[in-house]
Specification:
single chain, 254 residues, mainly alpha, 85% helix, 0% strand, Utrophin
């Protein structure tokens, strides 16, 4: 009777493992929304816990069969053979569920990381857009133009590392068929805005550099002219002080 019960327990355990494999391991890996992916991750976590909890039952079965084999070798031997099959299948099921759970957790982590990098770069684009707008309607002063140019250049020196991460994370998920439509849409919108703002910012940078150069050249010309006028004023004052006749002065002084 004990052998019959143990045989029944082994059959039930094998049946449970078959159902667990069908329920947890034969589902499609393609997830089209973050909600579907998150639900799948949580489901696999529960599956892993559920399977690992059966370890106690498996151990009890193993101990009982060993005890029976010690008392009734003939019955125990047949059960031991069945037990080995169940143990192998159980270990395989544990490994596969652990593997799928780990994979889904990595995919979810990849998705969250992508969103974080997109948030960082979107904040940078907002800052870039703000600096570009600040270059409009500047007062016609050298300091104002120079400050605006330096402010814009400081934002443009933003490293490209985050954009590289966005591209690689997005491509990894898309290649795996994970959230591909949503990610493609997000990347397309981000890249379009990045290209537009970057082009506009560089154009404004060039325009400010040219404006600054022109203002510096104009200021230099004015400075030279002021110095020449000051020298001429000094000479004229000297001539007047010395009561020099106008016709004795150099032509430019006359």
């Amino acid at each position: 009777e004990k052998a019959v019960n143990l045989k029944k327990d082994l059959a039930e355990m094998q049946e449970w493992m078959t159902q667990a494999e069908e329920e947890y391991l034969e589902k499609d890996f393609e997830y089209k929304s973050p909600e579907e992916l998150e639900n799948a991750v949580e489901e696999m976590k529960r599956a892993k816990e559920d399977v690992l909890q059966k370890e106690v039952r498996v151990k009890i079965l193993k101990d009982n069969i060993k005890m029976l084999a010690a008392k009734v070798p003939s019955s125990g031997q047949d059960l031991a053979t069945e037990l080995n099959v169940v143990l192998e299948n159980y270990q395989l099921l544990c490994n596969r569920i652990r593997g799928k759970c780990h994979t889904l957790e990595e995919v979810w982590s990849c998705w969250i990381e992508l969103l974080q990098y997109l948030d960082l770069e979107t904040a940078w684009l907002n800052s870039l857009e703000e600096r570009v707008q600040m270059t409009e309607d500047l007062p016609d002063k050298l300091d104002a133009v120079n400050d605006a140019l330096e402010s814009l250049e400081s934002v443009l020196r933003h490293p490209a590392d985050n954009r590289t991460q966005i591209r690689e994370l997005g491509q990894t998920l898309i290649d795996g068929g994970i959230l591909d439509d949503i990610i493609s849409e997000k990347l397309e919108a981000f890249n379009a805005r990045y290209e537009e703002l970057s082009h506009l910012a560089v154009s404004r940078q060039i325009a400010l550099e040219q404006q600054l150069q022109s203002m510096r050249e104009t200021n230099h010309m004015l400075q030279v002219l002021q110095e020449n006028l000051a020298e001429l004023d000094r000479q004229l004052t000297s001539y007047l002080t010395d009561r020099v006749d106008a016709f004795q002065m150099p032509q430019e002084a006359q």
